[in-house]
Structure to design on (101 residues):
């Protein structure tokens, strides 16, 4: 077995034993080129997170995609993101916080 294979095996063993898992998703993962939510990629991730939660693990989801999705939901041109208040509204608006989006 190569060193690379051994490293991967050790990494997988560590993941199986982890109680807290941090998942980082970028904008290109959660959105289509049009800015819409990419359900084809997001749904399997959500199912995986649900499975981890079912195993009583803690999951921390970190995404830079909130601003991109918020911009799409609000129907704003990307040039509007130069305004910090607009960017903040896109990234953390009430719809994202309460789960309605």
């Amino acid at each position: 077995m190569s060193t690379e294979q051994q490293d991967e095996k050790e990494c997988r063993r560590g993941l199986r034993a982890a109680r807290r898992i941090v998942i980082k998703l970028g904008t290109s993962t959660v959105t289509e080129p049009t800015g819409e939510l990419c359900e084809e990629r997001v749904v399997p991730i959500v199912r995986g997170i649900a499975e981890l939660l079912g195993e009583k693990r803690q999951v921390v989801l970190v995404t830079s995609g909130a601003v991109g999705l918020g911009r799409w939901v609000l129907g704003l041109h990307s040039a509007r993101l130069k305004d910090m208040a607009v960017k903040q509204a896109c990234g953390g608006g009430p719809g994202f916080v309460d789960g309605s989006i």
